[in-house]
Design a protein that fits this description.
Elements lengths: L1 E6 L5 H13 L4 E5 L6 H10 L5 E8 L5 H6 L6 E5 L7 H8 L8 E2 L5 H13 L3 H27 L1
Parallel strand pairs: 1-2, 1-3, 3-4, 4-5
Helix pairs in contact: 1-5, 5-6
Amino acid sequence: MKVAIVVGSDSDLKHAYEASEILKFFDLPHEILILSAHRAPLETAEFAKNAEKEGYSSIIAMAGKAAHLPGVIASMTTLPVIGVPLSVSLNGLDSLLSICQMPTGIPVATMAVDGAKNAALYAVQILALNDQRLKEKLKQYRDSLRKAVLDKNEKSQKG
């Protein structure tokens, strides 16, 4: 069970690190790769075609501007691909539309613009389907979110 975090450029690494922190919290092995659908298409294809053989269970692919990286990867693997549009230009609208408008038959689960943390959490949810330990840790994580909201509410009521 290993997750790949793929970015199209080293300028996108800050988002990859956000996803990495979530995966570290859940003790999930993962790797960050810099590939490009446009500037390194052969290497990107090689990665996608061999991802399952290399032990990956899901792929988080982040891209800005034309944002073809998640779709290109999804077209070459049956692993779940989670796309993260990045706000490189046009507030990320161009990336969002590029990633979420996949043709029928080649889906990419699309997160919010700059939604790296949710992409990692979605990968955790997918992997938790077959891992009871991970499922329990995810439930605890969600419960901690609930408690944090209730604590903030209580503090605000005391004014």
